[in-house]
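2024-03-11 09:14:02 INFO queue: dequeued item Type II secretion system protein GspF domain-containing protein, len=398
2024-03-11 09:14:02 INFO validating residues
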Amino acid sequence: MQRFRFRARSKEGLLRKGIVEAQSVATAAEVLRGQNLVIVELHELKAGGGLFNFGNKVKFDDVVNFTRQLSTMIGAGLPLTDALSILQVQVSPVMQVQIAEVLKSIEGGSTLANALRAHKDTFSPVYVALVAAGEAAGVLDTVLARLADNLEKQREFRAKTKGALIYPVVVLIGMMLVAGVMMIFVLPKMTLMYQDFNVELPAVTKILIGASNLVSRAWYLVIAGIMGAGYALQAWRKTKLGALAIDKFLFKLPIFGKIKMMTTMAEFTRTLALLVSAGVALVEAIRIVKDVVGNTVMHNALEVVAGEVEKGNALAVSLARQEVFPMIVPQMVSVGEQTGKLDEILTRVAGYFEVESEHAIKNLSSAMEPIIMVILGLGVGFLVIAIVVPIYNLTSAF
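2024-03-11 09:14:37 INFO prediction written
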């Protein structure tokens, strides 16, 4: 069966839209006419695919909005199938196909968690585990509301992080573009005059001329080399050894390493708090988090922690034995275990790391301005020494 998206008008003139299943477009049109609808638009709905199709992935914002709307509808007492049918025509076209498949699975007797599990690229293991816990406990609306809150906080945190880094990234890209234009178009013309004079040039000038000639004459090789190095690094990143080495390196960077650590800890503590509050067993929650934390160092550490907790050790003690976790994490977890409010404590720890990371990013953005000015000054000074000084020496010789 094929799926067709339609827009049609009823006898009363009301606009209706949705998705209809049929063997062909002609059959779909007959079905709609049988419902006394005047077809405005009718086309086949495809999932998309292919190597160069980058628009077939569901965006994070789409998942956030879908979760919030679904939690609101379920909380209002709307049946799950009706809620999904309504959302099916309100989400993005890419997500419509997935929601249609989820709805079809549920109508066939599947649970929502099992239906979502088939779309792991869109719905993470944490998402599926929370939905499964909500269905098992009969509190799906409550769990979806908490999940929507958590996803919205993640979206807000990511937006703040990206916003703080926009300025330095744009400036650095601008500097690279200006340097490329200088090396390819400007410097070769300026250095031609040196060829008319049979004089010995300074070593700095020779280096600049050699680099300019390389970039201007073999720029395609330079670009190919950069792309090849990036591809090789990405391929190495997919191996266990490469991922571990790169993640360790990122954690050890002077300023960016601290930001990376705090953002990772915020993600870890907030996600673990959400799973624990939903009633997921602690060991299972840790193993779910380790697969979605997005850092190999953290993944390996949590794998050890999960094994120790399964043997009966306290979570705080197991976390303290891993160097990747700052001391505040096991200390606060110990308080949560003693008071029986582990989820609340983890949520507070997540808030602490989010605030600290925001401050660190803002400080980095402020510090980037003088750093960029120093780099620009060094670049201008290098050009003065390499180009202007030889010209001055040549003019002084006459």
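2024-03-11 09:14:37 INFO annotate: The first strand starts at residue 2 and ends at 9.
2024-03-11 09:14:38 INFO item closed
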